[in-house]
Amino acid sequence: MDLYQELILEHSKRPQHAGLREPFEAEVHHVNPTCGDEVTLRLHIVGEGPTAVVEDVSYDALGCSISMASVSILAEETIGHPLSEALTTFEAMKAMLTSKGEDPGDEEVIGDGVALAGVARYPARVKCALLGWMAFTDALHQSGHRVAVTGTDPEEGTP
Amino acid sequence: MDLYQELILEHSKRPQHAGLREPFEAEVHHVNPTCGDEVTLRLHIVGEGPTAVVEDVSYDALGCSISMASVSILAEETIGHPLSEALTTFEAMKAMLTSKGEDPGDEEVIGDGVALAGVARYPARVKCALLGWMAFTDALHQSGHRVAVTGTDPEEGTP
Amino acid sequence: MTASPFSPEEVARIRADFPILARTVRDGAPLVYLDSGATSHKPVQVLDAERDFYERLNSAPHRGAHALSEEATAAYEGARERIAGFIGAAAQDVVFTKNATEALNLVAYAFSGSPHPGIPGSERFALGAGDEVLVTEMEHHANLVPWQELCRRTGATLRWIPVTDEGRLDLSDLDSLLTERTKVVAVVHASNVLGTLNPVDELVERAHAVDALVVLDACQSVPHLGVDVEALGVDFLAFSGHKMFGPSGIGVLWGRRELLEAMPPFLTGGSMIETVRMEASTYAPPPQRFEAGVPMTAQAIGLAAAVDYIDALGIERIHAHELALTERLLAGLAARPWVTVVGPTDLESRGGTVAFVVDDVHAHDVGQVLDGSGVAVRVGHHCAWPLHRRFKVAATTRASFAAYNTVGEVDALLDALDTVPEIFGDPRLRGAS
Amino acid sequence: MTASPFSPEEVARIRADFPILARTVRDGAPLVYLDSGATSHKPVQVLDAERDFYERLNSAPHRGAHALSEEATAAYEGARERIAGFIGAAAQDVVFTKNATEALNLVAYAFSGSPHPGIPGSERFALGAGDEVLVTEMEHHANLVPWQELCRRTGATLRWIPVTDEGRLDLSDLDSLLTERTKVVAVVHASNVLGTLNPVDELVERAHAVDALVVLDACQSVPHLGVDVEALGVDFLAFSGHKMFGPSGIGVLWGRRELLEAMPPFLTGGSMIETVRMEASTYAPPPQRFEAGVPMTAQAIGLAAAVDYIDALGIERIHAHELALTERLLAGLAARPWVTVVGPTDLESRGGTVAFVVDDVHAHDVGQVLDGSGVAVRVGHHCAWPLHRRFKVAATTRASFAAYNTVGEVDALLDALDTVPEIFGDPRLRGAS
Ligand SMILES: Cc1ncc(COP(=O)(O)O)c(C=O)c1O
Ligand SMILES: Cc1ncc(COP(=O)(O)O)c(C=O)c1O
Ligand code: FES
Ligand code: FES
Questions:
Q1: NIF system FeS cluster assembly NifU N-terminal domain: which residues (chains A, B) (predicted)?
Q2: What is the pLDDT of residue C431?
Q3: How many angstroms does the Cα of residue D356 sit away from the middle of ligand 3?
Q4: pLDDT tier for residue B35 given thresholds of 50, 70 and 90
Q5: With respect to CATH, is domain D47-311 assigned 3.40.50.300?
């Protein structure tokens, strides 16, 4: 199946940066009500405003290969990156995932995230790929970082 | 229209035995919920068991020509008759009205009631023709006369 | 004279879309259907849309990851978007119900004696003694009885705006009826008996000034006027699909987003939950929160097709066409002194529903005579019993129009009506005396 | 080996009645629909019946005296009689709802903290602190959450019967769970996950011994077994039309007459009233009392046609056919050590629903792979989240059968399943180790 790219299977079997770590400013717990899958995600940000950097994203996740791969890629693509860049990555991921297959994703921006491009063709799975990202933006919101974030509504982008 | 026999129009314009009179053993108030029409009916019975006689049926009715004619015919066909005979008349009326047009009614038994035979072809009007009769059997029931009465359910016989 | 924007040829083309209009009733009389206020007929386009769904996409929406389920979900949510757009709403603020009655009950049941511990903001929906619910004397039972029951459950008091002899709301005493005790104002947009269009603007302004919520029963307006929830300014709006060329078994509740979010669930079960444990559950955001169980999928898709059908004709043109028929009927009735119209006798703030009584003849007998000529009208209290009591009649005869009705059908009604005095004696003489 | 009473030719003839079964999904894979437990497809006979109603009789039942309305009323009430007969009930004890979820909520909402002053006998439905409602750990959310909410509203306590490792009700502690405090026992007849058929006889006997009412969720039994309300001895029974070849948007509640008569109304509005005044209303007897508003007319007629369709095939033969497919699937799964069935693994007291998990692969991924081959199964918690928690899985993959499924489709599922370990690595080795 085109959906299950090798990269997805690798990430889902060996999720990067998995586990819950300290320190963190915000911890959130998100559930996907249609399947019951869950993710607990902690966010550690250093610095303020334009100089803020995502120091750590740690998580404990239980879910399908798509959701596991997605949160693993999230950690990989955001840890150590400026917050503004992480948000650009999020926007690009979201645009790709909700494009119904029209946006193949830009590897420059989302890295391994491009492996999830196929998900956009399966509306019921878009939520899987967004689960971790929604937790991430929610944690960001709770950490008090005032960055314009669109789409923190977990319902958005799913049919 | 075949429904509006001359006899029906006459009864409805000049309802026989109309008005509420004394004495009476039972008074009931029935409403047809689909149209809001009402009848208050009083029953006066003399004697017990097999010798019981319907001494008076008096009523105050507000309704369509079918219901007015029917209660007028009821009064005409039952006042002064043995109770058992009145019940036979009721059964025959009910059988005719719920026959969907197959039972033309027996003039020997129901008198002017045969003029209502056409009602059986109009299911929505069967309730009109039965309204007074249902009040009559209900009053009988309330008066404590222990006579086997079928069909005191006002819903019965309507679709 | 108002002219219909539909040419006779256009009406003929419309009629051809409704197979049932070609049938005869009783002993061969062509059907003259003037009862669209009770339920409208359905064009083949709507029937085809439903059938196509069943034959190609049928599946339970929001309940699976397989291809059919995805397609059914997209079709169902697409229908929501289409229908929401028709009333100027966002899709996520539109809840599907089985009919308008369920939609109105859903709102009434959101209120209760105490807030729901799991729904932040639900204090807004807690009522008690001292609180008041304001309705009108012209409400359909669907927008009256749920509020009576709510008041019974919570100890709140029901009050109502009376109706004038002309069939308009009597707002002269509104200051004492609508006060800071009032928590809800539930009112019909277009009366299903009188045809009256109520002054929503004024009621909304007055209600919102005291922080009361406005629930609009739009059953008789959405099918016939252009309705825009934002322009109306109400808080909730309910209507049924079956009165607007849609299938039976589907209704719509629109609600202001922040209110829907603060509302406790009503029907509970599958697909409206967030998490379920044996001990307790948490609930999904609207509209899912209010759509428990496998929904009316095919019916939502049919209703979306009905909206397409209306849009193709143009709701403004439909309204104008119906008003032209209404004017002709009102003129015809006015020419018959033995007939009295219950409700406004001109076209000012009026929809295409005309109720009347014939001197000394019961409405059911009038309806029966008309029916004998194939003319289908509704008789009775039309689920607005208090309104009839106010006019001191048990029942009225009501004609109501849709896009497929013709001038000839109005004339057929009037012709058949003239046989009523012939059958029941001649009230013309009495009427003229 | 159980043999199906349907010959391959007969199954082929059945399939020809369901146009959707001829379609392909994804990139041309023939549809293998094994998700009838979520919703079944509809034969042309049902679609024709609905369409015929709309094209010939459409009108609002119980709302008029004209010819169409009379015919629609007769058709609607005829459908009620037909459907009631199918479950051994009298027509007047059958209430139409939009789905089983509404039916179960209707019963749960009949209970409240205090009797309804206008309904004699409604004391029976008053609950409070100290009263208990007993459900089971295998309930669908539709027969769990309404009872949770009822307990929240009234202060009653929810208790539940646990489930054994084999997927059966664990009745060992029933004496302490079902006591004179218990007012309601709400239980599923056939589990929509495990396939388990529950021991209704025993539960009814025990419940009635303490005067508790038994509410049976028959969503997964009425479509597949012969169900007779009198033989079952329960007090209420609910099911949906869409799982038994009927249209979406219609469900059924059957209730014991004296209970329905003592129940307060739920949805209120048109056609469920006796008299309405502004001050208060009185209500019609059942079933009208529970059918507010214009009903699901066409859907009731479609469901009656579905019942005709089932009767023509024979419900016993349908059940035997489905069990034959179930047996083949269970055998196939047993031969794959990397698959674990959740629920009974033999045919004893079992329906045609099989849930399973694949070692180390998430159910959604399993479902997605099957879907890629055109095999439509359901994945997730199937609205029975607590049951999944009890088995310590977030989700299962579920196949469920209907009369139109074939042996070839079971094999197609098993073949597609074998590609799962190919894609996700080889748990066969792990499973065997
Ligand atoms: C056992 C069981 N109960 C209740 C339901 C709810 O039925 P519906 O969604 O049609 O209301 C279902 C199906 O979804 C079911 O399988
Ligand atoms: C003004 C009004 N409100 C409410 C209703 C109830 O609609 P439904 O019966 O479709 O629920 C109707 C129609 O019957 C109506 O005309
Ligand atoms: S199936 Fe649960 S997150 Fe993908
Ligand atoms: S119409 Fe009311 S009794 Fe006939």
A1: 4-128
A2: 39
A3: 17
A4: confident
A5: no
